[in-house]
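Problem statement: downstream parser choked on a complex file, so we are re-checking the raw output for the FE2/S2 (inorganic) cluster run. The parser issue turned out to be on our end (a line-ending mismatch), but while we're here, posting the original submission so the record is complete.
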Amino acid sequence: MSVLPQHVLEEIRELPAKYPQPRSAVMPALDLAQEELGHLTPEAMSEVAHELQLDPGYVEGVATFYTLFHLQPIGKHRLYVCTNLSCKLRGADEVVERVKRTMGVPEPGEVSKDGPVSYEEVGCHGACEYAPMMRLDHVYHYDLTPDKVAALVADRKSVSPHQAAPAPEGPRKPRTPRRKKADG
Ligand code: FES
């Protein structure tokens, strides 16, 4: 009996037709499997390989290379805090410290003791203009402060694991560059 339900296997089977190279379907397929199970088990990865007619070693290689894929159980709600340069320069370290304190975990990848939340430190999400930022489940949150992130973690801990993540604040406007002070 397969670990992935029939409807997920069918979705995976339809993916290769959407890409010029059928093997490009491996990441969305792993994403579907992870969404379903919470993390990628060896059985799930081999079912993905079977459905896409790919080498199981290749599928496992992709799953182990990308930090967004998890091979161990993690929280139902996941924070991916960007700690790349722009975010670091604008306070990502303080944000991470507050995340750890609010969740009560010392390291990335651990699940909070009192709620189904886990966090990862990841590379650039491509939203450097709004640094520091993070992805919470599938939603981006910008211009983070320690207080803002603590409120988001508390919110996720208090809701049902199946409730959608809160929407990010309104549409983003490009920042106006700061004027340089005139000399003298
Ligand atoms: S460095 Fe954080 S989004 Fe680019």
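For whoever reads this later: The longest strand covers residues 77-82.
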